[in-house]
Design brief:
Layout lengths: L1 H34 L5 E4 L4 E8 L2 E5 L5 E5 L3 E4 L9 H12 L4 H7 L4 H13 L1
Antiparallel strand pairs: 1-2, 1-5, 2-3, 3-4
């Protein structure tokens, strides 16, 4: 009699644990389905952060913050997550703009390499003759 009660108790525990695991799995699948929409910032199961730019069947195209597009399987998208980027100060923005504007002239490049102007013009002439 004691074994029957113990067996019934174990069976009831297994049933309840299975139901809760199934509910949790359904919740995760719903969250994943809501995450896979064009324009969402998402994280993959491997930790890649990107924005969804295209969905084609099971293939999802993500663009990284640096602008590189990669293709992932739809089931590798884990959840919606904003991309954590550091905010730049006004000084850093100004420094980046200044750096973009400075483009060294051809003579400056030749001089920094130790090539004088006569030799650099000779090199240009020989290249144009080929």
């Amino acid at each position: 009699m004691e074994f029957i009660i113990l067996g019934a108790f174990i069976m009831i525990m297994i049933i309840f644990m299975g139901r809760s695991a199934r509910k949790q799995q359904e919740k995760m699948l719903d969250a994943q389905a809501q995450a896979v929409q064009v324009g969402n910032d998402v994280v993959t199961r491997s930790g890649f952060l990107g924005r969804i730019v295209d969905i084609d069947g099971d293939a999802v195209t993500l663009v990284s913050p640096s602008g590189v597009e990669t293709v992932w399987l739809k089931n590798s998208i884990m959840d919606v997550m904003p991309i954590p980027l550091a905010e730049l100060t006004e000084e850093e923005l100004a420094a980046e703009e200044d750096a973009d504007e400075v483009i060294p002239a051809e003579e400056d490049i030749a001089n920094s390499c130790g090539v004088d102007e006569k030799r650099s013009s000779d090199i240009k002439d020989s290249d144009s003759q080929k």
